[in-house]
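Q&A log
Question type: sequence-to-structure
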Amino acid sequence: MTETYDFVVVGGGSGGCAVAGRLSEDPGTSVALLEAGGPGDNWVVKTPYALSLMVPSKLNNWHFETVPQPGLNGRIGYQPRGKALGGSSAINAMVYIRGHKWDYDHWAELGADGWSYADVLPYFKRSENNAEFNGAYHGQSGPLHVNRLRTDNPVHEIFLQAAREAQFRVRDDFNGEEQEGLGLYQLTQHEGERWSAARAYVHPHMATRPNLRVETGAQATRILFEGGRAVGVEFRKDNETRQVRARREVILASGAFQTPQLLQLSGVGDGEMLQRHGIATVHHLPGVGQNLQDHPDFIFAYQSDAPYFTGTSFTGIGRLLSTIGQYRREGRGPLATNFAECGGFLKTRPDLDVPDIQLHFGMAMVDDHGRKRHWGTGFSCHVCLLRPKSRGSVGLTSADPLAAPRIDPNFFGEADDLEAMVAGYKTTQRLMETPALRALQQKDLFTANVRTDDDIRAILRARVDTVYHPVGTCKMGAANDPTAVVDPHLKVRGLEALRIVDASVMPTLIGGNTNAPTIMIGEKAADLIRGEMR
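Response status: OK
Response body:
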């Protein structure tokens, strides 16, 4: 017998957990949440350091790859995405960033009415339980814990000294009045443990809310339609095909790759593309899977025997093992690291209105997302381009619902992005060449022989890849935008009872990490839905 709920939420990531958690606060509203991965509640997810085990592997990770990228010398890129309750918030670096005020005001200008910064700030505050900041820009009573680092790493002061030496502003709060500057990141952690969207919105209620059903190991394969109305979801669990029905709505929250893929598998998308895969068109909606945007990212890395860093060496491993007891007792020390402990937002030109690059300063040498190991300890510094002009796409590799989606970020598809990254490289290099950071460097892994602009372009093409912020493939827009997939209420255009609540709805990529904004989307979606139910 097929079970029926008011809402069926597909995908237990940041948006899905937030909207399912909020809707199920009403005991009269029943919610089913389908997640393809596991429960996301074991030590690997909870221990921040263990992201180094998950990101390079298939542990709680979809482990996707891109099609060959012409802008990156034909290389195939890597796209880790979380596969567990919490989605990518179960495997990410936990950096709590909202993006710039300009980003949301720009959304509103593009036709996303109700999504200006003034409109979304209350939802950021509602979600947030910030241990450090309060006031006009922060909340301290939400379910998402936000805290200062608990690694007690002396390198923080060295990083701040380097920022001053490079004549960059030092900033305490990247989510307040202004964003530009360098400093220490706040993290989605609590008492030294990862605080994923699932821990915030779903785990506390699974045993106490009979109106919330959470089904893990359940991969959605098709949206069920009756005419133009979504009425349920077909999914695979334990090698069986099952169905669950929705009285009110089906809510897609599978992320920028798998939400468009599920729509396409269900007959919603560009009709010609669907026909090529033998899929009958339910609704021709050509914007599905288009407008993919992601932050192209380059990493500087240095070997260092300074006692602040981790890595593959007898000293580094021994130092880490010696701190396990401290972490268990106090939730402090190196095991609490998110690796990207410091960073910030810079302008490559003083005439820019908003910062155009972001840095993540890491406590280990990183090569190919941690998939290539180097002997020794050291540190890294990521630089990513915040608002690239290039647009990619997500499509189908086949009509098999268990196949991976076809992912094409189209990195450096626009020549301007490469030139902006050259400027970003030079700006970051200013920081790396300060006396404070030079004193830590024993060996430059990647950039020792880079001298000219052509050298910089060459190494960017050879080494750039994602910093894990794909968005935009089911963009939100006005009624007169032929590429918009959802309206400002997140409803899929031309269909009934189908809504999207994840990063795929972002019209443009925000200037920063995307976890907190996706949780905000889930919070705002719950309000939109409740407003329509009254």
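Response note: The chain has 15 helices and 25 strands.
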